[in-house]
Amino acid sequence: xxxxxxxxxxxxxxQPASPEKREIDALIDADRLVLVGVVLTELxxxxxxxxxxxxxxxxxxGLRFLDTRFSTWRRAGELSFSLRRKxxxxxLSDLVIAALALEHRSEVYTLDPHFEQxxxxxxxxxxxxxRGR
Length: 133
Fold this sequence. Notes:
Layout: E1 2-4, H1 6-14, H2 19-29, E2 33-36, H3 37-45, H4 50-60, E3 64-66, H5 70-85, H6 92-103, E4 107-109, E5 122-123
Parallel strand pairs: 1-2, 1-4, 2-3, 4-5
């Protein structure tokens, strides 16, 4: 399973010819993509009109959804605690995404390099087609 971070969904919705759009479409077609609540929240909060929010919600409704449980929140807190001891502070939303990915042994598809600082987190690598194809 792959959790797409908000940084990937933004080009998906705003740039129809983007590599992120193509990759997310491929993940959906392969039934590998899952949605998490914090990403849904970030996408909706960034809308300029309720019609835009309705479009986003309707596009995401069919995806599998990972719930955030007590264990997820605890793990996010533990991640934050250990990273802060190393001088690294990450947004709570990204800690929750990472905790969910670790709990469900999922990869995170993101454009944000700070996810690389989370120990044990598997990042989704875009598989580029060979040149000339």
